[in-house]
């Protein structure tokens, strides 16, 4: 009896590991195709073929918009891991994210639309927001700001960052102007909050 229970638990663990591996394969294939062919020109069938799985398996991971949100979310997580605690410069926190979005304009617009249309991904957006806020607050930890002030600074910078991305997507800024506006925003916030490192 005990032996059967252990075998069932091992089987369950193996199935979960296999499911996660398949999901990673699907998301990797989707990301590759979204970058290569564009979001609009990539179908669920294309993703399935590239991943070597069935269309049903891809649909088990999510619909096309959901898969896009997951792939961009994964890219953001990877950037976060690369920049974690790398420098004290606040611009170095948001520049890699700005570069990721401006480097793939069509995907960025599709991602924004998908976030609006797929309301059940609010947890994804909240966790991505928290990653960025943690990085900002980490950079401010040696400043003269209190923890509460650092949180307020981070919230304002985060929302300004989103606003700048929306303005860029609407054509109000080119890539270079977007980076200049981000630097100006950080300088203004540092002045307003009296930040000194």
Q: Describe it for me?
A:
This protein is mainly α and 197 residues long. It folds into 2 domains: 62 residues, Orthogonal Bundle (Arc Repressor Mutant, subunit A); 135 residues. The chain contains 9 helices and no strands. Helix 8 runs antiparallel to helix 9. The longest helix is centred in the N-terminal third of the chain and has 36 residues. It is globular, with a radius of gyration of 20 Å. The termini are far apart.
* SSE sequence, one letter per element: HHHHHHHHH
The number of E-state strands comes to 0
Provide the domain count.
Answer: 2
**Low-pLDDT windows of residues:** none
Radius of gyration: 20 Å
Q: Helical region count?
A: 9
Summarize the structure.
This protein is mostly helical and 197 residues long. The protein has 9 helices and no strands.
Highlighted features:
197 residues, Arc Repressor Mutant, subunit A, 80% helix
SSE layout:
Layout: H1 2-37, H2 44-51, H3 55-61, H4 64-83, H5 91-103, H6 105-117, H7 122-140, H8 147-169, H9 175-193
């Amino acid at each position: 009896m005990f032996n059967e229970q252990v075998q069932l638990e091992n089987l369950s663990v193996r199935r979960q590991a296999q499911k996660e591996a398949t999901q990673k394969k699907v998301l990797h294939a989707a990301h590759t195709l979204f970058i290569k062919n564009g979001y609009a020109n990539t179908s669920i069938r294309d993703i399935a073929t590239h991943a070597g799985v069935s269309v049903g398996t891809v649909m088990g991971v999510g619909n096309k918009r959901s898969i896009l949100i997951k792939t961009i979310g994964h890219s953001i997580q990877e950037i976060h891991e690369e920049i974690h605690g790398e420098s004290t410069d606040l611009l170095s926190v948001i520049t890699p994210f700005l570069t990721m979005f401006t480097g793939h304009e069509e995907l960025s617009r599709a991602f924004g639309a998908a976030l609006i249309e797929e309301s059940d991904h609010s947890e994804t957006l909240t966790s991505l927001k928290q990653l960025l806020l943690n990085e900002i607050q980490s950079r401010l930890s040696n400043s003269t700001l209190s923890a509460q002030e650092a949180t307020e600074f981070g919230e304002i910078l985060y929302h300004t960052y989103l606003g700048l991305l929306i303005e860029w997507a609407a054509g109000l800024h080119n890539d270079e102007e977007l980076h200049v506006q981000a630097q100006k925003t950080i300088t203004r916030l540092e002045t307003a909050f009296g930040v000194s490192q």
